[in-house]
User: Fold this.
Amino acid sequence: MSSAKETSSRRARGVFGSSRRDAHRGDRRFHWGLRLCALAVIAILGGIFFQLSKQASPVLSKMGLSFFISTEWDPVAESFGAGAFAYGTLVSSFLALLLSVPVSVGVALFLTELAPSRISLAIGFLVEMLAAVPSVVYGLWGIFVLAPWIRVSLGPLLRKFLGFLPLFQGPAYGVGMLAAGLILAIMITPTIASLCREVFRAVPVANREAALALGATRWESISWGVLGSSPSGILGAVVLGLGRALGETMAVTMVIGNRAEIAASLFAPAQTMASVIANEYAEASAEMHLSALAATGLALFLVSIVINTGARAVMRRVASGPKRGKLGTLSKTASIEVRP
Assistant:
């Protein structure tokens, strides 16, 4: 009898041991599968960098680092420099952020904190639909609507009241840096607004209630309880919007004017790294010209990585900073006047 019990217990241990080993084997396969997916992303980035560096080596070996700061672009004389394109890319992108971020955060706050649920759903759907519009449609709208409006109405108005600033001097052609910045602002607003909306929804209701309990107004409860709790999330949304602006090609190419020069005025035509590649790659036949375009793509790739890496470092620092903020200070000092 005892031998039968021992035999059954051994079998049970064998069965459960094999199933446990199978479970561990499945976990290991899942773990290595995920690790391979992560390594594939790194390998793709490394492959892009390697291929761009290989294609850009002729022009970089000839011109060196001066390629990235020179503003001369002459395919006939085989003299190339991406300085003007880098300037156009950065200025148009940051101009778009300057115009888009306040609107995007305001829209997200309205939809999450103030608007009724039906209006919030309707407007939120329309805002997200803007992200589905193809960039070439934005470009056509910019050519036929935005550029004439800048030339006839906005340009003269800015020159009249702000003409003492170098940014608003010179003739308004319609196409130029200002048109590119406005188009990019419209295109990145849905991305930033949608992400900020999700960030604000994730803020605990207790933050708002705590501010109201201390006597704060509706605006103070939003600014301290919602905005004060989500700076890292807002910054992450802005970074994603900046990444969209840096790489946008078609719409910017159609409205920026495509002139390789650095000008202080926002009315002047300019060119970005993406637009010069789109304009000239199909017609480039000389080895140095193709190499220069590849080097421009490499510069755009490196600029995107540097900006995203720096933004992530700032996000990490903001997220690990002091958590108390104004709401915690008020709860400690009780210095808010209670309002009826």
